[in-house]
Each structure stands twice: as structure tokens, then as C-alpha cells.
Amino acid sequence: MTLSDRARRLDAADPLAAFHDRFHPVPEGALFLNGASLGRLPAATPVLLDELVRGRWGDHLAQARTQWLDLPQRMGDRIAEALLGAEPGEAVVSDCTSVNLYKLAVAALRARPGRTTVIVDDDNFPTDRYVMAGAAAEAGGQLRTLHTDLDLGPDPAALRAALDDTVALVCLSLVSPRSGALLDMAAVTETVHSAGALILWDLSHALGSVPLQLSACQADFAVGSTYKHLMAGPGAPALLYVRRPLHALTTQPVQGWYGHREQLAMRPDYDPDPTIRRFLTGSPPVLSMAAIGAGVDLLAEAGMDRVRAKSLALTAFFQELADRELTPLGFRLAGPPDPAQRGAHLTYAHHAAHDLVPRLATAGVFVDPALPDRIRITPAPLSTRFTDLCEAVTRIRQVAHSHEKETA
Length: 408
Hints:
By secondary structure, this protein is an alpha/beta fold.
């Protein structure tokens, strides 16, 4: 049986196949493989937003705003139940990932007096490192940076060696933005806690792509993008999670009226709400926050175990295709070889990656560049067919071959 025949059989047996048609159509002939950058538009999103804009804002004017006062908590609870393995009242949606990182970094440093060191790794997303460096400096401390293998992700042994009684916080991405390497959340959290420090997980490439159990792992803090695997749209606000026992022990630095105990009383002094709401600051971006719901509904209906199972099958199948068709052209898998040790994306190194990405877009294959010489490929489980991967690899091979001939 050829790989193309296998792809057709896999598509025919796919229990999530019906979800393919629940997205806004892509341009004719386009193959969308960069969901780790910006997720596809669910077909339900325009309908949802139109009803909100016309039916609530348009018809109810200023009176409509009272319906949205608790939207950050309601959306946080939906995500917690469907995707986080967390309890109601432990998550909110607010601000962007960078701002949420800052809030939680300062909260963690305040909760560990006498400890001023923050640990990150040198392959973490740049904003995580920038924010952690600033928060550590404000606390009179230092940023300790761990070297990371660009293909395999952070080394847990190196983390253990770096922990001492000066460390207040460790900030890591559960899924590496570059290589896709997936860390063991429970094991890393236990290691950090055993040293008396707190853990802040960046879930931007994990939320909606891998099953999560934050409560079972006793994760302290987490942030996460909603415009990637949650498909909430450009600039959609981010997730913020705080384990419930830490609510009373933590305060955040950006004190605003949404986090006040008596939000609408307009008191002159700030009194933080005792719940997760203390991590809110200002009025939520209602339209983009509401748009998160369409993607969460799709993922909840599909079930994260089935989403993960198809993701593993898609990335393993692409890897098999690439081994046969792309490796002879200089492509090298730049991530863990075992799909179970990756998130939802694969990364391939190629000496001409910078030139190939725009050429691939012209050929209708949409992927991400990943510095320094890599291409990131994300086959979204709810909208990607196995036959799409066969066609994508064919086009990638053709584009790479043409490029080699031109530059020879």
C-alpha cells in the first residue's frame, strides 16, 4: 500500500473528520500548516460575534456591559474545565501573555521573600525571558538562564543542578516554541517544589494541543495564548491561571478596578478581591474574549484525548513522509524523534529555510519560520487531513528542488 493510499484510509477512518467542515474555508488549493502561529477561523466565530455586536451591544447599548463584567472568569472557567484539568475559579482570561507573565512573576517573587532568583532557559520564547529579567531586576535579584538543546528542549538534570535556596520562580514553556519538545509537567513541578520554589508554566503551545492536568500536577501559575490552538483570532487575550491555595498569598502589581473586592463601589483605596479576580486589572476586550468560546467549544466537543491522538498520528505520518521525500533534500528533523515527546508541531532544519518559507506560501503551503534555520509545521487535528500532508510534502519537495537548482 502506498503512503497516499494509507492517507486516504486514515482520512476515511478519522473520528474527527466531520470537524474539517466547521471552519471558514481557506483559499482554493491552500494547505494550512501553521496553526502554532495563528489558528484557523472557526465557522461559528463570525456568527457568534455578529450576535454579540448587533444583538447585545447594538440593541441594548450601555446596558449590555453588565453582561460582560464577569466574562473573564466565565471564560476562564470554561477553559479550566475543558482544557486545563483545573478547578472553577482558578483561571481567568485577561490582557496579553506578556502582561500576564509579568503579573505572575511579580506575584511569585513577593510570595517567596528572601529569594530573588528567577530561572528560565535560553530557548524559551523571548518575551518570557524579557519579562522574567525585568521582574527579577525589580526585586533586586537575578535571572539565571539554563542552556537548552535546540532540538530536545530543556534538560531536567540541568534544572535540578541550578536550583538552590535563592530561587523563587522557574518559568518554562511546557511545549518548546521552537522544537516542539514536550516537558513532563508533573516531574518538573515536583523538582521545583522540592527546592522551595514556584513554577510558572507558559502553555502557549500546549493549550488546546495536549491534554493538561494542572490540578493533579500541582502547577502554581500558568499563562497561555488563545489565538494559536484555541483559534480565538489575532490579538485575543491570554489565559492566566493561579492554583487556588496561592490566591490568598499572592498579589499582583497592576492594580486596577477589575481586581478590586468591590469593583463597582469606586473606593479610594485598593482592596484586592480574595478570588482569582485579584489578577484582573481593567475592562476586558469583550469581542476578542468572546471569540475564544468558539474554539473552546470545538475542542471540548472533540475531546482532548481524541485531539491528541490525531495530532500524534498526523505528526508521525508527516515525519514518515519527510523521511522518504525531504531528508534527501537536506531537511533534518530538529525536534524529539518520538511524537509522544512533542507537542502538536514538528520542526525541520534546512540551510535555506529562510528562503523556502515565502516560496512555500506562493505554492500554497503555509508554514512558520523558526530561527535560525528551521521550519515549523503544525497540522491542526480538527482541520487537517492526512491527504493534505501528502500534498504538502510533494509541494515542499518541489519547491526545495527548484531552489537547489536555482542556487547551484
